[in-house]
Design a protein that fits this description.
This protein has two domains: 221 residues, TIM Barrel, CATH 3.20.20.70; 72 residues, Non-ribosomal Peptide Synthetase Peptidyl Carrier Protein, Chain A (Orthogonal Bundle), CATH 1.10.1200.80. It is built from 16 helices and seven strands. It has a seven-stranded parallel sheet with strand order 1-2-3-4-5-6-7. The protein binds flavin mononucleotide (FMN). Flavin mononucleotide (FMN) binds next to strand 1 and helix 10. Flavin mononucleotide binds next to strand 1 and helix 10.
Length: 308
């Protein structure tokens, strides 16, 4: 997820049980023009493997060039984004914009597959809108040109992130292809993960927004699937300590002020359901130094413990 799954959050999710993580989508044009900020988005740490670098764009030459740049970092897969709904992305024919022209999408993916020995995967949606749900045809065509796996966000582009995803497409896709198919969309709790596997033959489940609110979802889902119960209890101590660990990682990777400021978007998730959380969040929004965040959160933890 753009602006969310940077290295610090990916490492956090990995520590909390994610099997496979992906970079934010990385702009192909930025890569081929050697934009430093774009290249930085592909930085990989050995501890987060297996990892996919996701690239997006519309121009075949640029996507091929981007795939070559990505391949230099030896990710476990190179993923092509054919699902992003955002206006300025689809406006350039990238992301879900590629769904409007399946012939072109197929050609683009084929050219990328041809230039790398790293497995190429695609993440897409079921279609552009309800009148053009072409996922079965697209899945078959992409398998034929050599993708290693397909992730399907079971909504149309018109739905953006709204409305119920239609997971029933996963089984229909599985009927027409033999590559692994991963389900995405609307998986917010460990129970959703369980239901996704019960209701479909998905080979895996990709979690996006659910991990922002609850990065323990990966571990909890595995517990639920293997033992039938969720053993990891997310108490205030775990919430606050994981939040601080994640922030320390971010600061190691970025510098202090940027790390602290960019961490603000995670407080809603980490402090979810805790007494007086909105007031604490408001106070955290004004802070730019790690030591102040730590003092504030550890004092808060003490207050919560006394209240118990
Ligand atoms: C803030 C944000 C950024 C996202 N960025 C990306 C991205 O870079 N690449 C991508 O494939 N999907 C991206 N997505 C879409 C998610 O990967 C996912 O397909 C979508 O949120 C549905 O899954 P969910 O219901 O589990 O959130 C993003 C979603 C959000 C909310």
């Amino acid at each position: 997820m753009e602006d969310i799954t940077d290295l610090s959050f990916r490492l956090t999710c990995k520590r909390l049980g994610a099997d496979f993580v992906f970079t934010e989508f990385v702009n192909a044009e930025g890569l081929v023009r050697n934009n430093i900020k774009t290249h930085r988005k592909m930085a990989i740490h050995p501890d987060e493997r297996p990892i996919g670098i996701q690239i997006y764009g519309n121009n075949i030459e640029s996507m091929v060039g981007a795939a070559k740049h990505a391949a230099e970092l030896k990710p476990d897969v190179i993923d092509i984004n054919a699902g992003c709904w955002v206006k300025n992305v689809v406006g350039c024919g990238a992301g879900a914009g590629l769904l409007k022209d399946p012939d072109y999408l197929e050609k683009l993916v084929l050219e990328v597959v041809k230039v790398t020995s790293i497995p190429v995967t695609v993440k897409t949606r079921i279609g552009w809108d309800n009148d053009s749900i072409l996922i079965l045809e697209i899945a078959e065509r992409l398998e034929t040109v050599g993708i290693a796996a397909l992730t399907v966000h079971c909504r149309t582009r018109s739905q953006a992130h709204r409305g119920e995803p239609d997971w029933s497409w996963i089984n229909k896709i599985k009927d027409v292809v033999s590559i692994p198919v991963f389900l995405n969309g609307g998986v917010f709790t460990p129970d959703d993960v369980k239901r996704a596997f019960q209701e479909t033959n998905a080979d895996g489940v990709m979690i996006a927004r659910g991990a922002i609110d609850n990065p323990w979802i990966f571990r909890q889902a595995r517990e639920l699937l293997t033992t039938g119960t969720i053993e990891t209890e997310i108490d205030p101590f775990l919430r606050i300590n994981t939040c601080l660990e994640h922030l320390r990682l971010a600061i190691e990777i970025k510098e202090e002020k940027r790390g602290v400021i960019e961490h603000r978007k995670f407080y809603t998730g980490y402090l979810k359901g805790l007494y007086n959380a909105s007031q604490i969040r408001n106070n955290l929004m004004k802070i730019t130094q790690y030591s102040e965040v730590e003092n504030l959160l550890l004092d808060y933890l003490e207050q919560l413990t006394v209240r118990k």
